[in-house]
Amino acid sequence: MSSALRHVFLASLWRRRLATTLSLLAIALGVALGLTVQLIHSAALDEFGRGIRLLNGAADLQALGPRDGFSDALYPMLARSPAVDQASPLLEIEARLPDRDETLKLIGIDLFRVGAVTPALLPMGEDPDERAPASGGQLDALRPDALFLSPAASAHLGLGPGDRLRVQVGTREQTLRIAGGVPGAGVGQRLAVMDIAAAQQTFERIGLITRVDLRLAPGVSRATAQAQLGDRLPPGVALLTPEDASSETLGLSRAYRVNLTMLAAIALLTGGFLVFSTQWLAVVRRRQEFAFLRAIGLDRAELRRGLLAEGGVLGLIGGLLGCLLAYLLTALAFALIGGDLGAGFFRGLAPQVQFEPILTLIYLALGVLAGLGGAWLPAREAARMVPARALRAGDEAEVYRARPRWRTALAALALAALCCLPPPIGGVPVFGYLAVALILTGAILSLPGTTAWAMPRLPAGRSTLWRLARARLTAAPGQTVVAGAGVVASVALAVSMAIMVDSFRGSVDDWLTRLLPADLYLRASDASASGYLDAEAVARVAALPGVAAVRPVRFETLRLREIGGETSGEAGHAMALIARQVRADGGLPLVAGTLQPPTGPSVPTPVWISEAAADRLRLGVGDAVTLPLGEQPHGFQVAGIWRDYARQQGSVVIEIADYRALTNDSRTNDLGLTLTPGTAPEPVMAAIRATLGEQQSEMILPGELRTMVLEVFDRTFLVTYLMEAVAILIGLFGIGTTFAALATSRRKELGILRHLGLRRRQVGTLLATEAALSALVGVAIGLLAGGAIALVLIEVVNRQSFRWSMDLQLPIGPLLIFSLAMILLAAIAARLSGAQAMRQDAVLAVREDW
Amino acid sequence: MKHRRRDALQTILAAALCLGLTLLGGAAAKDFAPVLEGHRLAFPEDNGAHPKYRTEWWYITGWLTDAEGHDRGFQVTFFRVGTGLGADNPSRFAPRQLILAHAAIADPATGHLLHAERAERALDPLSGASVGNTHVWIDDWSLSQENGVYQTTIHSASFDLELTLTPPGPPQLNGRDGFSQKTPDPANASDYYSRPQLAVEGGLRLADQDLRVSGQAWLDHEWSSQILPETAQGWDWIGINLNDGGSLMAFRMRHRDGSTLWAGGTLRHGDEEAQILSPDQLHFEPGRRWQSPRTGAVYPVEWVIEIDGRQLTLSPLMDDQELDGRRSTGAVYWEGATRLLEDGQEIGRGYLEMTGYWRRQTGL
């Protein structure tokens, strides 16, 4: 068998080099894309996990509150609790670096406390002037300007001991001195450490901390401690396990990761289809060869094994190539876009490419599986033939006589519809993806039936070639299955992504336009960083000539310990709080409720929650909700539900006047400026820079911001676009190889046509027409399937992964052009690949039969 | 066992920071009030902390005897350190004052010191040093005074102490009415009083032994902004409870070459009036030496001390009473239980402290 395997089967792969190469490429691309996504994420997650472990240390529980922190009076209370062995207070700040226009994670620590829980954060002093321990250097770690950089931060900023670093606080600057390092932080974490008192003072956070890490007394369980201490915590402060706290971020990135993996899986599936079509045709072409081999003693099982081996070898080589490519792509991605695939989940990490043996093996196995899977049906078909009949010429037609499989197709589609109903599992829309797979299966299964149904209904026409093509496809609908399966899969994928991304983009665009009513936006830094505008800065800007009105926006976060009356896994996770003008400005893209709720003394304070918040809190319009503001519970009423694409974790909007009355917090993060009519924004921007400082503010015009956000959007979906292109390429490969093989296997038929007087060019046209008709059916089904998949993606997958809705938008023009192009390209591919077959002498071709 | 992890913490922490005793000299003396002669100590106010001065300590040393008659030495020290930092910082974490604590047990059965330490910034109510009365604490380590009786509680991995210490009489002022000059320059001085002959009662846990103990102890309370000049290498100090009910405190500051830079002391016999010893009345003569196998430092563990012609001999409870703080506080010194002999007869028991034998004692 082994020599037969080598000579008969594997050698055949070598003989049809083009088809083999294309199959290899398709599998390699599918494997490469899938593995790259996994490699990048596993490296990023690894580094992220390392960061989490580093920052959490040996903490059993963490007290967490709003982003800007909670009262540090809580720390002694926690530290003295009998349930607590060790308590370490932390103040985390994203410090804006005005000269670099970036931020640095800065952690204020009590160095007498941090060692018990997170020893990796201990600063190590390094005095550049005095090598010997000098009395003056002993207190360095406590000095108000002493900053200690992790190795990664030190390398990134290019700063060492003795250097200065400017940080922004509000709209002012403070200069810190690099006093040493944080050697325990490892090489992948960009962070800085300073004394907690110094951090409170420098960043104007006196009285505030953002976290208390707790180690519990021996014998005290986390649940016991949570129950005991929970009641003594003020509203808005939650006691989470480090796993809970870190799953906040991991949960956000997971949906994105799963989506990408699914796309890669679809690419791989398409690769499998290509193997299927090339193998199928190889089997058809070698039908007599196999019959002969069978006649001289090769048994059924051996034949099947041999053909499966062909597929397996394709899969293996393609898989190996794909794995290699994946590592190259990963390295390239880390070098070019960093570890977060453009989605911004893992900023501040510097992950390294690592060899992942298990992941690699899994993807290699997937490649082999795609090859074997593609070869499975053709092998079964070949093994099933009766040698005596197959030896006769013209028997190939048998294999194209595919039965319609309406029942199975309909069952798949019905099942797909059912799959849209169940909720996600662990935040992943498993059933949604299953529905996508089922729709794809159903679409492909309906191919032969549709072809058989559609062809007789095409106008008969007067052209001989048209009639020939139509007759051929009506009689052998299996041919379209072979040629069309890849087309259906790739068109469905491309179309669904196109519709989904277009809908998403359109919705985001609309959302942005409504959310940005002002003429100019001003901020001191990103809302999570240390810059902000105080009341005085806002007043100065408002007083500038040309400024008609200002709209301050304050961003905070809040934590609800109980969700819907029960403590669920997500309880205590942060939610965004946005304080802004709503009634006066509108600008919230509502999906339910009103922007103008009734006012009056007895009416509860209104709150507008995002779709994600409505999901998480299980709230509807008119419901009452209690939110912790300034460590006090306050009652609100849901006035509306709005669409928020920016904050997956959910967001809550309240009137800024209400917010300030309840919290006494007068800081502003973003300031929208309405200019007096006829005022150009540029002079106003110059005036603001003169007022607040050249580097201390960031300004943007709504148009620019819109462009920027959409750019980020496009970058995020770059991977998607890449996948689409690959899918289309694979689909076209499929048509090309199919028709090349078809033309070869139909040499005799084409020879007869030549004898009957068809010119070579006309045979080419015949093949092109057949291809175009096959593609037409494939594209039509692909369009329908793509539309259905897009609906599932929008209504199920996105809704469940990201908890937001979008308006369906059909890019009809582009889809039409795309469809026509596919059909045309299919015709050209068939015409080109058939050319070789037509070069042969017609007489010789016919004589082969006798 | 709350203290186990705490000790691990202290080790890690101090290793990274070289805090502790060496840190006592962190800030410049000019940030603090100078100790001036003529200032009258007033009690009970001066039992409390003096945050205007740079460093301050409550230093308890003594001998404990258990029910079976075994003798052990013990030391409990609380330091308050002004850092000169954070004066303008309204943060509750502002590191204006640090509280450090050391505790050690000298048990001949062990052969070396058991010791533990803690460090915190003063942060009410977790740690601090009260003004006006003796109350200094770090979490569950504390020293306080109520109705004249001192109480101290220490928890660590290797031992726990829970002691009451009752003074028999009023504080013993050292130097000139509590002004204790440390070098020829009166700028190097401290306010200094002692509470000798403290009657000790309480409990000592060692590994899994819970012992009832009693004995005599000595408390020093001293504060200053500047003691040790650049030219000084270290000091030798004794605090001895005499069997006749009296007390002897003597110290000398050493030059880098080992010669005496300054000396002083207070000697009281029974109920007699205390005698303030001037540098020329005191002579320290080192005797038998012992080399530490850990640090290689050589300490004179036996001494002859001449006071106005009287020859007194110091003999240690055990040789190895070196406190190796290289991995924690960065300070290495010998602090041990000692007998005082005259003509071969034990006339008192107390503690001997020797610093600057490993490297120059910085700070203080």
Automatic annotation (TrEMBL), chain A:
| Positions of the ABC3 transporter permease C-terminal domain | 262-386, 725-840
Give the matching InterPro entries: ABC3_permease_C (IPR003838), Lipoprotein-release_system (IPR051447), MacB_PCD (IPR025857)
Q: Which residues cross the membrane?
A: 262-284, 313-338, 358-379, 408-425, 431-455, 476-501, 718-742, 763-792, 812-830
Protein name as it appears in the record: ABC transporter permease
Cellular component GO terms, alphabetical: plasma membrane protein complex
- Ranges for domain MacB-like periplasmic core come to 20-230, 485-690
Pfam families hit by this protein: FtsX, MacB_PCD
What membrane topology term does the record carry? Multi-pass membrane protein
Q: Give the UniProt family note.
A: Belongs to the ABC-4 integral membrane protein family. LolC/E subfamily.
What keywords sit in the KW lines?
Answer: Cell membrane, Membrane, Transmembrane, Transmembrane helix
Instruction: State the superkingdom.
Output: Bacteria
Can you say where in the cell this protein is located?
Cell membrane
**A biological process from GO:** lipoprotein localization to outer membrane
Automatic annotation (TrEMBL), chain B:
Q: Signal peptide location in the record?
A: 1-29
UniProt keyword list: Signal
Stretches that traverse the bilayer: none
Q: Where is the AttH domain?
A: 55-225
Check the record and name the SUPFAM superfamilies matching this protein. Answer: AttH-like
PROSITE patterns per UniProt: TAT
Q: Does the keyword Transmembrane apply?
A: no
Region: Disordered; residue ranges are 166-192
Which protein are we looking at?
Carotenoid 1,2-hydratase
What organism, scientifically named, is this protein from? Answer: Thiorhodococcus mannitoliphagus
| UniProt lineage | Bacteria, Pseudomonadati, Pseudomonadota, Gammaproteobacteria, Chromatiales
